[in-house]
Specification:
alpha/beta, TIM Barrel, 8-stranded parallel barrel, two-stranded antiparallel ribbon, 11 helices, NAD(P)_OxRdtase_dom_sf, NADP_OxRdtase_dom
């Protein structure tokens, strides 16, 4: 496994990380045994960065990872945790709470569910509109001093917020969506991260399966994607046309569609670590195959011609959620 340093203040980590959200029902039912087997296969392959959120399955994902990391595996990985999203017993989204007391309470529960004494990277899932980012980062910094957190990260925030956060405490990475079909960070956010020496952990590199070459409409009602504009109606058909063009380029280069999409993100810089949302071993193996690919400038150009910047139909989240994204303002 290739490794890179995550930001100028972070640790060495695997060139690809494992995103575990899909193992806790966000994309419909997931098999617990296969999920843990996939986690183990990732670690066996040298993946060291494991990403989760305390609101994935209302704690289910953290408990699943905690179970999977028993028997001496905890020290082989870096666990990245997002917090702050509020949900009710029915799973509805209620908003965000990143106040100092919420930071420390959420962390306490996270440590218990994961069965660990520290979190490697702790980050607010979104900017809390009611709490200055300085207060949120300051509270996490308290937990760094106390030894419960090693590094501080951010998620889905814009350039100004990144600067304000970095002025309080070193930020190791920004977690944000980035793919051939979601390239908004290239304008201001990515340059800011590079100026400040902050790494990027890119989620949605396959746009939640849309550009994986495996997704076809329709989506089950229990699937998160059923509420995503890019997967609905005419938008879905227009986006699948982009996938067809991407697949044609990938096949001509001897790659699967998913491998081409992941290789493109990898080619954008060693400061960008893709998070692969695999929940089955076969999908993990396919994704890791992208590490063996080397894209030439002509290859990159061909992929970007197949999926031009801004060509996606529909926003990456529903309108209500987009309004909460500091990264989109």
């Amino acid at each position: 496994m290739q490794t890179v340093k995550l930001g100028k203040t972070g640790s060495q980590t695997s060139r690809i990380g494992l995103g575990c959200m899909g193992m806790s029902g966000m994309y419909g039912p997931a098999d617990r045994t296969e999920s843990i087997a996939t986690l183990h296969a990732a670690i066996d392959a040298g993946v060291t960065l494991i990403d989760t959120g305390d609101f994935y399955g209302m704690g289910h994902n953290e408990m699943l990872i905690g179970e999977g990391l028993k028997e001496g595996l905890r020290d082989k990985v870096q666990i990245s945790v997002k917090f702050g999203a509020q949900r009710d017993p029915a799973g509805n989204w209620l908003g965000y709470d990143a106040s100092p007391s919420a930071v420390k309470t959420a962390l306490a529960y996270t440590l218990q569910r994961l069965g660990t004494d520290h979190i490697d990277i702790y980050r607010p899932a979104r900017l809390d509109p009611n709490v200055p980012i300085e207060e949120t980062i300051g509270a996490i910094a308290d937990m760094v001093k106390a030894g419960y957190v090693k590094h501080i990260g951010l998620s889905e925030v814009g350039a100004e917020t990144i600067r304000r956060a970095a002025a309080v405490h070193p930020i190791v990475d920004l977690q944000i969506e980035y793919s051939l079909i979601s390239r908004g960070i290239e304008d201001a956010i990515l340059p800011t991260c590079r100026e400040l020496g902050i790494g990027v952990t890119a989620y949605g590199v396959l746009s939640r399966g849309l550009i994986s070459g495996h997704w076809t409409a329709p989506t089950a009602p229990t699937d998160f994607r059923a509420h995503s504009p890019r997967f609905q109606g005419d938008n879905a058909q227009r986006n699948l046309a982009l996938v067809e063009a991407l697949t044609a380029v990938a096949k001509a280069k001897g790659m699967t569609t998913a491998q081409a999409a992941i290789a493109w993100v990898l080619a954008k810089g060693e400061d960008i670590v893709p998070l692969i949302g695999a929940r089955r071993r076969e999908r993990l193996a396919e994704s890791l195959g992208a590490l063996d690919l080397s894209l030439s400038p002509n290859d990159i150009e061909a992929l970007e011609q197949a999926v031009p910047k801004g060509a996606a139909a529909g926003s990456r989240y529903a309108e209500g959620q987009m309004a909460h994204l500091d990264s989109e303002k």
